[in-house]
TrEMBL record:
Entry protein name: Alpha-L-fucosidase
InterPro entries: FUC_metazoa-typ (IPR016286), Fucosidase_C (IPR031919), GH (IPR017853), Glyco_hydro_29 (IPR000933), Glyco_hydro_29_CS (IPR018526), Glyco_hydro_29_N (IPR057739), Glyco_hydro_b (IPR013780)
Subunit structure: Homotetramer.
Residues spanning the signal sequence: 1-21
Name of the top EC class for this enzyme: hydrolase
Provenance organism: Pygocentrus nattereri
GO molecular function: alpha-L-fucosidase activity
Catalytic activity: a neolactoside IV(2)-alpha-Fuc-nLc4Cer(d18:1(4E)) + H2O = a neolactoside nLc4Cer(d18:1(4E)) + L-fucose; an alpha-L-fucoside + H2O = L-fucose + an alcohol; a neolactoside IV(2)-alpha-Fuc-nLc4Cer(d18:0) + H2O = a neolactoside nLc4Cer(d18:0) + L-fucose
Function: Alpha-L-fucosidase is responsible for hydrolyzing the alpha-1,6-linked fucose joined to the reducing-end N-acetylglucosamine of the carbohydrate moieties of glycoproteins.
Length: 453
C-alpha cells in the first residue's frame, strides 16, 4: 500500500472511531461499564470529606437511621426518646421545620474543608428518609426549598466548594426510601413493578446531574433489589456517554444486590471497608469521626469519637493500600459543623501541610508495610518513596529494611530541611540518624527516600 492509500486508511479509521462525540460509547451492561477507565483525578486526590445532613439532624439522637429505628424496627430506645420529649402523635415529618439551618454558611464549610486538606467533598443530596436537600421536582414539599431551611443546600454548597479550585464536588444519593408508598408498592410486588423508579428515583438522578454537574455520585440504599430494578446500567450508560459530566464523573459500586465490590467505578464494599492486603481494584474507605453515627448526635461522647492519631493512621493505611479516604462529619440542624469536628479537620490539614506529598497523587509501593524498628507504611511517586511511622522510636538510629539504596540516595524527614545521615544495610535497607522528632498531635512522621530502587 502506498503512502496515499495508508493516509486514507488512517483517515477512515479515525472517522469510524471519532464519530458520536469522538469517543467510544458504553452499553448498558456491566461488561462494558466496568471497562471504563476511572477518571485520573479521583486516584490523585486521596482524601475527601463526607457530610450526612438531613431531617435526622433535628432529633439528632441515635443515628441518621432515626426514623427507621423509631417507626420501622420500633427500637425501644428511640420509642422512649419520643415518649419523653415529644407529644403523642408527633410524626417524623414534623421534624422537618426544625432543620432551620439558620447558621448554615456554605463558604465557611468550604473553607474548613479546604483547610483540612481534603480534595473532594461528598454531600447528602438525599438519605433513606427521602428528604432532598434541593428542590427535587418529584419530592413535593419534602425538600429543603419548600420546607426546613427554605434554601437550595446542594446548589449553595456546590458553588462554595467549586470556588476552591483544589476541591471536587460529589453527591451521596440513596436509591431507596424507607416509607415511600411507591417504593413499598414495588417491594410488595417483589420488584416486578418499577413505579418508584419511573416516577421518583430516575427523575431525581437526572435532575441532580443536569442541574449540579457533580463529579462523583456515591450511590447507596441498593441492597433490597437487583440492579435491573434500579435501572442502574441504563443510568450509568447515559452518565458515561451523554451526561454533562461524562468525562469526569466517578461512581461507586452500590447499584443493586450483589454489585458492591464487583461492579461500578471504584469499590466501597461495606461501610468502613478495610482490606487486609493490596486490592486489585481502586477502592475507598469511608469512616466517620463519630464512631456510632454518620449523622449528628447531641448525645455523642468524646470517647466515641476518633482521635487525631487514629484518623491519620487510618488515612495512611488506606492510601498505602491504594485507596481513597472519605471522612464523615455530621453538621447540626442549625447548619453549624460542631467544633469538635472542626478541630479534627483542621488538625488533619496541619499534618497534611507538612506531609501531604506522601499522600496526594501517590501509588502503592512494591511493599506496603514493614515491621522493623517500628511499624512503617510505604507510599511512592515516580521520584520518591515515603515511609510513614506512627510510633516515636525514641532513639537516634532508625532502620528501614526493604528499600534498596544507591550512591544517589537522599534521605529526609518531611518538615526538616536538612538531609539525614544514613548508611546501607546488607543487600537492602538502611540505617539513618534521626533528629529530635517534632511534637505533633497526629503522632505520625514521614521519611522521604529519593534515589531508591
Amino acid at each position: 500500500m502506498g503512502s496515499e492509500g495508508l493516509r486514507w486508511l488512517l483517515l477512515g479509521l479515525c472517522a469510524v472511531l471519532c464519530v458520536s462525540g469522538r469517543r467510544a460509547r458504553y452499553t448498558a451492561d456491566w461488561a462494558s461499564l466496568d471497562a471504563r477507565p476511572l477518571p485520573a483525578w479521583y486516584d490523585d486526590v486521596k482524601f475527601g470529606i463526607f457530610i450526612h445532613w438531613g431531617v435526622f439532624s433535628v432529633p439528632s439522637f441515635g443515628s441518621e437511621w432515626f426514623w427507621w429505628y423509631w417507626q420501622g424496627e420500633k427500637d425501644p430506645d428511640y420509642y422512649l426518646f419520643m415518649i419523653k420529649n415529644y407529644p403523642k402523635g408527633f410524626s417524623y415529618a414534623e421534624f422537618a421545620p426544625g432543620l432551620k439551618a439558620e447558621f448554615f454558611d456554605p463558604n465557611e464549610w468550604a473553607e474548613i474543608f479546604e483547610a483540612s486538606g481534603a480534595k473532594y467533598v461528598v454531600f447528602t443530596s438525599k438519605h433513606h428518609e427521602g428528604f432532598t436537600n434541593w428542590e427535587s421536582p418529584t419530592s413535593w414539599n419534602w425538600n429543603s426549598v419548600d420546607n426546613g431551611p427554605h434554601r437550595d443546600i446542594v446548589g449553595e454548597l456546590a458553588a462554595a466548594v467549586r470556588k476552591r479550585k483544589s476541591m471536587h464536588f460529589g453527591l451521596y444519593h440513596s436509591l431507596f426510601e424507607w416509607f415511600h408508598p411507591l417504593y413499598l408498592s414495588d417491594k410488595d410486588s417483589n420488584f416486578t413493578k418499577q413505579d418508584f423508579i419511573r416516577n421518583k428515583l430516575m427523575p431525581e438522578l437526572y435532575d441532580l446531574v443536569t442541574s449540579y454537574k457533580p463529579e462523583l455520585i456515591w450511590s447507596d440504599g441498593d441492597w433490597e433489589a437487583p440492579d435491573t430494578y434500579w435501572n442502574s446500567t441504563e443510568f450509568l450508560a447515559w452518565l458515561y456517554n451523554d451526561s454533562p459530566v461524562k468525562d469526569v464523573i466517578v461512581v461507586n459500586d452500590r447499584w443493586g444486590q450483589g454489585c458492591y465490590c464487583k461492579h461500578g467505578g471504584y469499590f466501597n464494599c461495606a461501610d468502613k471497608y478495610t482490606p487486609p492486603e493490596l486490592p486489585k481494584h481502586k477502592w475507598e474507605k469511608c469512616n466517620s469521626v463519630d464512631t456510632h453515627s454518620w449523622g449528628y448526635r447531641r448525645n455523642m461522647k468524646l470517647s466515641e469519637l476518633m482521635d487525631l492519631p487514629t484518623i491519620i493512621k487510618d488515612l495512611v493505611y488506606t492510601v498505602a493500600l491504594g485507596g481513597n479516604y472519605l471522612l464523615n462529619i455530621g453538621p447540626a440542624s442549625d447548619g453549624q459543623i460542631p467544633v469538635i469536628f472542626q478541630d479534627r479537620l483542621l488538625r488533619i490539614g496541619e499534618w497534611l501541610k507538612v506531609n501531604g506529598e506522601a499522600i496526594y497523587s501517590t501509588k502503592p509501593w512494591r511493599v506496603q508495610t514493614e515491621n522493623g524498628t517500628v511499624p512503617v507504611w510505604y507510599t511512592s511517586t515516580s521520584s520518591a518513596v515515603y515511609a510513614t511511622f506512627h510510633t516515636n522510636p525514641k532513639q537516634f538510629s532508625f532502620q528501614l529494611f526493604v528499600p534498596k539504596t544507591s550512591e544517589n540516595t537522599v534521605v529526609t524527614l518531611l518538615g526538616n530541611p536538612n538531609p539525614l545521615k544514613w548508611a546501607p544495610l546488607h543487600s537492602s535497607g538502611l540505617v539513618m540518624l534521626l533528629p529530635d522528632l517534632p511534637s505533633t498531635p497526629a503522632e505520625a512522621w514521614v521519611i522521604k527516600l529519593e534515589g531508591v530502587a
